[in-house]
Amino acid sequence: MRSIRTSVARGRGRRQNLLAVTGLVAALALTATACEGSADDKADASATASQAAADTGDGKVKVPSNIADKLKEHGIDVDDWANGGWKDWDKDKWLSAAKDFVNPVIEGLWKPERMRSAKEANKTVTTKDTAADQGVSDPEPAPVEAEAEKTPYHKNAAPVGKVFFDTPEGTAVCSGTVISDVNHPGKSNLVWTAGHCVHAGGAGGWYRNIVFVPAYNDLGKTEAQLGSATASEIAPYGNWWADWASTSNQWITGGSDSGGAGAPYDYAVLHVTPEQGSKSLEETLGGALDVDFSAPATTAVDAMGAWGYPAAPPYNGLKMFKCIDRPGRLSLSPSLPTMYRIGCTMTGGSSGGGWFRMVDGKTKLVSNTSIGPTDNTWLAGPQLGPEAKAIYDNMSKTYGGQ
Questions:
Q1: CA distance 392 to 170
Q2: Using 50, 70 and 90 to split pLDDT, how confident is the model at 75?
Q3: How far is 339 from 366, CA to CA, in rounded Å?
Q4: Backbone phi, then psi, for 95, in 5-degree steps?
Q5: Deepest of 86, 134, 242, 314, by most Cβ within 10 A of its Cβ?
Q6: CA–CA separation, 49 vs 89, rounded Å?
Q7: Which residues on neighbouring strands pair with residue 358, listed in sequence order?
């Protein structure tokens, strides 16, 4: 989550629609209950021929030919990359353009201890006062205390998980959500997250070794307990590598540590492939959530809920939390689209986590966590309009069937 400092007066006194809130929680649980997957799904270890990396027997990682060709195009030595060359963050060679994303699978890289060491992606920074556009922004919401999700997560919120990746500063973590693929029903490999969880914005490029782990730490164990946890308790559905990622051009050119002009466009879609296994992500979980690209103005929405894995204090990133509130509007500039804003005490690490609302009895994703203030009293996320839908449609048509 990108942090911003604000002096907008707090307190709006809005009354929540308790029926809508209760319905949202129940619907997410019901959706996720179907997302358990069979024991065979979880144990399926057949290699994914086109993407999964394999041990050649000499200790080196074999990178699939199509990925190797992309690396070579950028002057990157394949063997060097597989053996740790990805740790070189030469700014002049940091791939940034939308077409230049590359993320070869390095099997076994994201071990449980490496996941636990990952830090929240954001830094505590300041930006210009958001009170500048109070004519559009609604009053700052009262804080809503984040509530721990029920365990096991695979029965209560299986589509929600953690996004791990490497940055110039080290390992980092965000949150993400499994979404349905309109062109490949029942076989989606798509994950929704924030743009700043995959790309550094205007001053950087694509992050590396991006992996999604649905229902991470399924039983919500403590750090001490995780030391003896089984692989299925830590990653019940395995590790899913992003073989392609798309974010908005506005984020790539205008995104910054504080969100910047890219904040209202701070979203991304990943196409993932299993580190081990052959079934799709949706088949493995047993379900996925639809995306609503036509959510109404905030005044017409009774409740939205944000789910994620907050990692900055007082949280440690090991457990899933949620906040539910009636959304208001946040405007960073008159020239930018307004963002949704809800009261919530979740911190960095919850970035990219899905925001949901009820539509005709179904839970749908309508936004993702993007920015929040330094005192962690609220969260803001982009409204998903035509630009977001275009990214989703292109991912589904171009990569969905792979």
A1: 29
A2: confident
A3: 11
A4: -65, 125
A5: 242
A6: 29
A7: 363
CA distance 281 to 214: 9
Structure tokens at 346: 């979740």
Q: In which residue are the tokens 């609503």 written?
A: 292
- Our measurement of the distance from residue 79's CA atom to the centroid of its chain's CA atoms, rounded to an integer in Å, reads 29
> Which amino acid is located at 54 in the chain?
A
Is residue 274 classed as helix, strand or coil in its secondary structure? Answer: strand
Please say whether the beta carbons of 261 and 336 come within 8 A. yes
What is the pLDDT at residue 34?
42
- The answer to whether 350 and 313 are in contact (CB under 8 A) is no
362-368/290-291 β-pairing? parallel
Joined tokens for residue 372: 């929040």
For 340-392, the three-class secondary structure string (H helix, E strand, C coil) is EEEECCCCCCCCCCEEEEEECCEEEEEEECCEEECCCCEEEEECCCHHHHHHH
CA dist., res. 392 & res. 192, Å (int):
9
CA-angle at 349, arms to 346 and 352, nearest 5°? 95
- The pTM of the full predicted model, rounded to 2 decimals, is 0.87
Residue 195 token pair: 């743009």
Of the CA atoms within 13 Å of residue 149, those in its CB half-sphere come to 37
Q: Give the DSSP letter string of 143-208.
A: P---EEPPS-HHHH-TTEEEEEEEETTEEEEEEEEEE--TTSTT---EEEE-GGGTB--TT--B-E
Q: CB under 8 Å to 301, separation ≥6 — which residues? A: 295, 326, 327, 357
**Residue 158 is encoded by which pair of tokens?**
């299986």
Residue 135 has pLDDT above 60, yes or no: no
